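Appendix B. One record, verbatim.
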Amino acid sequence: MGRPLAPYRLLRSPPDFHSLLSAESQALLTANLGEVQARISAACAQCGRDPADVTLVAVTKTVVPEVAHALTELGPMDLGENRLPPFDAKLQAFKALPEVSQPTWHFIGKIQSNKARRVIERAAVIHSVDSLKLLRTIGRVASETDRCPSVYLQVKHATLQGDEAKTGMQPSELKQAMAIAAELTEAGHISLAGLMAMAPLGLDPSIQKSAAAETFALHANLAASLDAGLFAGGTPRLSMGMTGDLEEAIAAGSTCVRVGSALFRGLPPELRNATPAQTAPPTAP
């Protein structure tokens, strides 16, 4: 058996999940979620897809745990984080109240090799497997910890080559990545979900959406060329699209959109930024 996850060290009393949210903030959160869900439904209608086939991952990295919980009470149970300290703060808050339904946690940020163990111990789904080295590391750590994370292979296509902020495997590396993933899947160390993509950012607004559409289409075509039998469910899923380009992603076939700012727009500062007292330091090695 693998080493058990170290307990989360509570730095304050168990949270009252409703104490910080005024009726106005609750109403705003509800309205924001409704708008995002309406956008997803409209985008699916435009291309003849079922909205139920698109998972909304609420990216809660900029809000305090109370807001994350309030959102799960409205429906979304898939939450995404990209850094370990705020991730730990939310984990400890949810774990402090066992009667609260536990969400499915997604890790969407870049993972350093020395942080892989902590991510695997915490996240059920990892979207940012951006190198062959990291894929092998995840497989090894998963075998040592009796975990089997669902993973997306992050690919950096031609449209992103000039963007130094974006990481990812080269398309030419996917054949080798699929071979490694097949071995790890057979051993029960990972579940291969699909491909993850990010669109170019910071472009002129007149070409931003067309660049996103091009990038997403390239990734969808790449996914369609892979051996579908190696993916969980017999088909590759696509983690593509954020607040500014979810429509383009859904049109290209995305099955998972990662949305943060549109969900939490307008919330007051005390709900948008965790204070040091609310952010627990990592406690696992």
